[in-house]
Amino acid sequence: MEVTKLKLFTEDFYKTLEDITPTAKVPVLMDGDATVWDSLAILEYVNEQYLQGRAWPSNSAERAKARAIASEMHSGFFDLRNELPMNIRARRKVDLTEGARKDIARIDAIWAEQAKLHPNGWLFGEWSIADAMYAPVALRFQTYGIELSEGAKAYQQKALASESLKQWLEEASQETDIVEEDEAGVEA
């Protein structure tokens, strides 16, 4: 696997992306002749190409719910995204707006409900695309010290203990760039 590192929000960043994807945004996956942009589209592609469709629950009702929950993350929670930017290495405190508190409450409710239904820790029993969509949120909640209900906290801990997130955290710890836009709030 080859990763191209670009300094965010620079002329080179946008020019490089314009040459690869029509949206000039990340993420983008280039796999052989396929160029796939958009996080959910990338997850669907990987599921079909490499996971034999196993990244969604096999039960149709559970699969529909997993897709709804993943789509809710994909297309929503704007206040949370704006107020709690991705900043894996930091530990920060922010004053949340009512909108961000509502987003957090909804995510907490999703995680807690699924924890009751699937006590092994993943949202739908086995790891799924829904879990991939919420991995960045688990990290954001850790960065900003967000208080969660018992069930939601159990899910967050399961996600943070996964080998893939541990690898992500290890790689992030080696990053040296600071994105000023992502230095929200104050140091905790």
From TrEMBL:
It comes from the Bacteria. Residues 1-54 form the GST N-terminal domain. Keywords: Transferase. One of its GO terms (molecular function) is maleylacetoacetate isomerase activity. PANTHER family: MALEYLACETOACETATE ISOMERASE. InterPro entries: Glutathione-S-Trfase_C_sf (IPR036282), Glutathione_S-Trfase_N (IPR004045), Thioredoxin-like_sf (IPR036249). It comes from Vibrio harveyi. The keyword Iron does not apply. One of its GO terms (biological process) is L-phenylalanine catabolic process. This is Glutathione S-transferase, N-terminal domain protein.
